[in-house]
Amino acid sequence: MMILRKIKNKNFLLLFLISLILILIPQLFWGKLYIVGGDDSRLYYIFPEEFLKNFVFKISSDNILGNIAGYSPKSFLAPIILIIFLLKQFSFLNVQQLMYGLNLGLGFLFFYLFLGIWINKNIYYGTYIKIIASFFYIFSSYLINTLYVNQLLAVYLVFTIPCSLYFFLKALERKNIFLLLLSSLVFSIFSSTFNTLPWSAAAFIALSPVFVYKFWEQKRIFILYFLIFFLITILLNFHWILPLLYSYLNKTGSVSALEYYSSEQFKTSSGNLIKSVSGIFSQLNTIFNERDTTIIKDFSIFIFLKEIFILTIVFAGIYIKKAETYLKKYYLVSLFCLLLAFFFFSPSFGNWSVNIFIFLNEKIPFFSMFRNMYDKFSFALAFSYAFAFALSAVIVAEKIKNRKYVLTFLVAVLIIIFVNARSFIFQINNDTKTFNSISGVFTKKFYNLAQYVKNTESGSRFAWIPLNYPSYAYMEDAKNKGHFYFGTSPFSILTGKLDYTGYLSFGTGFDPELGGKIFKAIEDKEYSYIGKTFQKLNINYIVDNKEKLPNKANDFLYSGNMLQIQNEEFRSSILGKEIKNFNNKFILYKINQKYKSNLFYLTDNVSDGYENYKSVRFIQKSNSEYYIVLEHIKGKQLLIFQDLYNKGWILYLNGNKDNILYQKDKSISLHDNFANGWFMDTEYIKKQFNKEFYTENNDGSINLNLTLDYYPQKLVYIGGAISIITLLFIVFLEIYYFAKNLKRK
């Protein structure tokens, strides 16, 4: 007993030291700057509080982060960004590097524990094989070249999936409901669920043999525990599931994420993409050279040595007959996982494999999210490969038996893993990268601009010039001259205002090609079209970005003659009065007066547009609620709300929700292929409502006080309350269970 305890303590100390070293790797070798930018900005590591205030819980905004977003909840990001926010309060370290380090260390630890379910403790080399396989997992080339390069929030699946899977399988093994609840809790908090669904769903597909095997082994308990896990996970994520389902089922007008990904147009474009990328990685390159897009030509010693992993799996298959019965079963389970991952990662086995992928894309709802399969199945392949290698290494080691040969084999494998991962581990040049490597502090000029913009009137939007194709914003780092943030605009995060930066930011569900039309109009010098389009979008301010970028960046932003066509003639046609100059780095203008617009306005004739309109007084209480004052209205007039059309907006009379003037889809109309509109009939109002709800003037016109409310926003709070209650309930049960076990011991 004492010997077992010593071995256990020794293993614990070894795992703790390895995990600690992995946690420290980013802090020691990856520089001190934040790596930000790209399509999701990654600025949540620097401004987590602003993300929570201005982005995560706002769904009544059609354009945010400088790109079209539609009316969809982003609250699935809340748990992970809240964790970043808390770490930032209590840590003097670079929070991004700390998060990445924790991901590596905990990913290693929980993959090791996951393997412990399959590899018997009595196997002599079991501990070392599990450690080496866990290194193989977290340092997999499939992760290094995808999740680790892109650094999207899906990167935290490296820790989340093995951790959640370990607790789920342990719950089945021990029939322990508390471990099951912990599994759901970990997945819901750290995976950002909806945001990372393509990667986690791909992992579920590849690991389906594990679930099938466990189901066959424990049918009743598996079904019960799976249903409980599913229900608890739904409740924990109700804060974003409820409003998303509401928008999808009620067809509120704007294209929701579910509608977009299930549309025939998206399926068709996904099918075309599948055909074009399915053959990027051939079967041999996938297996032997991992992510090389060319035919293997370099049979160097190291390339040859790297094949030790696949050869180990092959040799294990040869010797499988002599292995113990349980190892045979586990080996086959892991092998099926690996084969599934290989197939979906690169369905290039001939036309039949591509046709299967296209068939699934057309028939399975939302399967189109796997269209660039080599990215979405990269995590699944890394996990499955390490899983299959671990069990194969056990079989091979049991066959060899000679301690010296086994140790030589394990050491060689470990060396190959670290040689392959050396450039990833020692990222010493991160701080020298000029793009998206910043201190976390922008220049005072930019902050002054942001503060000024924050205090402008409610509702007005902003455009950046020169407009660029990828719809990126750029600004210099305050502490490192020549270092730039380069990605989606941080304006909405820092100011709460919505902005347009380029081609991709303009499209809507009603006019997806609007960005292309604007750029064509610039090229054709149809400047009045651009001005009227800006007016329709309620763009009243324009920021002229004077930051000087290297030519390489300009080439990326402004392909062809995109920069040249935005000349002085274009600028003078849309720019109005200069408001403020921020040290010639950023200049803020009003739009040309003839293109000025209002968030709310009244018009007698829809066809007149802005030729004959009356502005409306209003107060913005929040992003989802406005108080509106209409004075001296008579006859039939159209009240326009210059935000992307959505039936979720409800107009109330006198702020009294028991007296709904216009409700949901009964009278709201799509105006100018963009905005919301309501017909205000004064005669109808006089007949329908008592005089306590309006005031009548001597000329027969009336005055109204209205409330405009975006109903689905409340669903975030209702769903959030359900999620929080579920979370507190689980935490209470876990504390109770822990205290009870502690008392028993």
Detailed description of the structure:
The strands form six sheets. Strands 14, 15, 17, 18, 21 and 22 form a six-stranded antiparallel beta sheet that branches. A five-stranded mixed beta sheet has the order 8-5-9-11-10. Strand 14 and strand 15 form a beta hairpin. It is an alpha+beta fold and 745 residues long. Helix 11 crosses helix 12. The protein is globular. The protein has 32 helices and 22 strands.
What's the pLDDT, averaged over the residues?
A: 86
Distance between the termini: 17 Å
What would you report as the Rg, rounded to the nearest angstrom? Answer: 29 Å
Q: What is the count of DSSP helices, taking H or I runs of 4+ residues? A: 32
Structural class: alpha+beta
Describe the main β-sheet briefly: 6 strands, antiparallel
Shape: globular
Q: What characteristics describe this protein?
A:
alpha+beta; 22 strands; about 750 residues; five-stranded mixed beta sheet; six-stranded antiparallel beta sheet; single chain
Brief account:
This protein is α+β, with helices and mostly antiparallel strands. Helices cover 54% and strands 14% of the residues.
